[in-house]
Write a structure and sequence with these properties.
Elements: H1 6-37, H2 53-77
């Protein structure tokens, strides 16, 4: 069994950070979207920009979390020690 390399730890840490950021920003985004539009957001909400500054702020946090999640997953999977 291979040992946990620093690159694997970094990948896992970035993945967890991205997941936490995405989960943390999702609820305020959905609440702001429902207040402004009176309907639930579409399924593609992280990739659809909005003209409302509050909605856009939370959408960008969530999009950053999604990006970090993917980067962390790629680092962990492409780790040469695994």
């Amino acid at each position: 069994m291979a040992s946990m390399t620093p690159a694997l730890w970094l990948g896992i840490a970035i993945f967890v950070l991205g997941l936490g950021l995405r989960l943390w920003a999702r609820r305020p985004f959905v609440e702001a979207y429902e207040r402004h539009h009176a309907v639930a957001p579409p399924r593609s909400w992280p990739w659809t920009s909005s003209d409302e500054p509050e909605i856009e702020r939370w959408r960008r946090f969530t999009l950053l979390g999604t990006t970090l999640l993917w980067i962390g997953a790629i680092l962990a999977v492409l780790n040469p020690a695994v």
